[in-house]
Specification:
Blueprint: H1 4-15, H2 25-157
């Protein structure tokens, strides 16, 4: 059998320190917890939150700067493409103008060469006609000399 002293001791231990015993330890533990939270907040969490906020500000400003740079780069690219198109158009016009001038110069040179060639041909024909006339005159003189000589020989031998 269990001795009554043990039962009394068991009852005393059961009544004090139970799970839902509301004595001075619960508020003391709550105060200690709040003190621990305040200390942790001031020593660890506050600097950490400041670091996180400064990091977020840095990321936000860097992101905004990057967006501005991207917009500027896109604007410069559009301006470059426009200038390139204008330059290509101007170059094409210059090429066409140069080709037209070259064709015109070529035609003028060919016309001048043709006129010069025709002038030389006409001059050569004139010279040939003159030489032909001289040759005929010379031949006519020789023919008359030869005919006279033939006639003299024929008449003189007879």
């Amino acid at each position: 059998m269990i001795h009554p002293v043990f039962l009394l001791a068991a009852e005393v231990t059961e009544k004090s320190g139970g799970l839902f015993d509301f004595d001075a330890t619960l508020p003391l533990m709550a105060i200690q917890f709040l003190l621990l939270v305040a200390i942790l907040n001031s020593t660890f969490f506050q600097p950490l939150l400041q670091t996180i906020d400064s990091r977020n500000d840095y990321i936000r400003t860097t992101n905004n700067e990057a967006k501005e740079r991207l917009a500027k780069a896109q604007q410069l690219a559009l301006e470059y493409e426009r200038e390139t198109a204008e330059t290509r158009k101007l170059a094409q016009e210059m090429i066409l103008t140069a080709q037209a001038e070259a064709t015109k110069l070529k035609a003028e040179t060919i016309a001048k060469a043709m006129a010069e060639a025709e002038a030389r041909i006409a001059q050569a024909k004139a010279e040939l006609e003159q030489q032909k006339a001289q040759a005929r005159a010379q031949l006519a003189g020789e023919v008359s000399n030869l005919s006279r000589q033939i006639l003299e020989r024929l008449v003189g031998t007879v």
